[in-house]
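**User:** Everyone, produce a chain:

**Assistant:**
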Amino acid sequence: MVPFVRAYDRLIVMLALVASVMVGAVFVLIVVDVGMRTAGLRPPVFSSAVSEYALIYVTMLAAPWLVRERGHVRIDSFLGFMPEAARRQVERFLILVCITLCLLATWLAGEFAIEFWRKDTIDVRSIEIPRALLFVPLSVGFFLCA
């Protein structure tokens, strides 16, 4: 079990690093886009679509790391008023609810990804991208959060 946990930890750290690099790349892309517009030049047509897709990927790639680090939103103020035994029971219940919801979201996103992949659906914005690529990071991210 320890090698599995170690591999999982490495995976989510790597995904968080990829998300960090993507945030930096989106920052540079936006600065270039705005700078070119300000200079009266025509910016790349793909910048807004790539930025939008990157937001989904960044969120879902970093989410498992945030869950592990307890960097996500919690209800500590509510739990702080409870007795220790009740707090542990409520926390266990909430963890089970969160795992269930993450697995449900994994399944639904996977279903959508497969459906859009089979239908060869394209998301047309300033560039054409397979719509299934919108749901792949959701499925992976929610699975790793569970």
Notes: The chain has a mean pLDDT of 91.
